[in-house]
Amino acid sequence: MKTAIIYKSIHHGNTKIIAEILANSLEGDLFDLKDVNQDIIREYDLIGFGSGIYYFRPHKSLRKFVESLDEVKNKKVFTFITSGDGKPNQWLNKKLSSKGFQVLGDYNCKGLDSYGPYKLIGGHNKSHPNEEDFDNARNFAKGLNKYFDVD
After folding, report:
1. Distance from C-alpha of 37 to C-alpha of 69, rounded to nearest angstrom
2. What is the pLDDT, as a whole number, of residue 123?
3. Number of Cβ within a 10 Å radius of residue 62
């Protein structure tokens, strides 16, 4: 299984850390979004898309990239996010599904949030992502193997 992890990480590197763990766990290639174009979709069996959450949605550059993708058939993807509240965000899953991608799952975890009023107190979720989040990301990646008959 040839895997690509595409991420956009801006403020504290939370998403990049999770992207690195997923890439290592899946023995995949890691790409900052600024370094890829649409052609990457054809080259991989499984693609992970990840971002922090900004105003309840993924980073605008990841939204723009996903919106620009051509429709596909039988291409497997997963999503991952980091956010101040640690709740899943369905924007990526819905958009990718509408383009014909098979979304195998999503991983989300809390991340340091220092936007707006949180900046005054040095941030919210200062200890995240943490070792438990890292272990959960590894377990999530391991669970993706069932779609590819990999032990």
Report:
1. 9
2. 55
3. 25
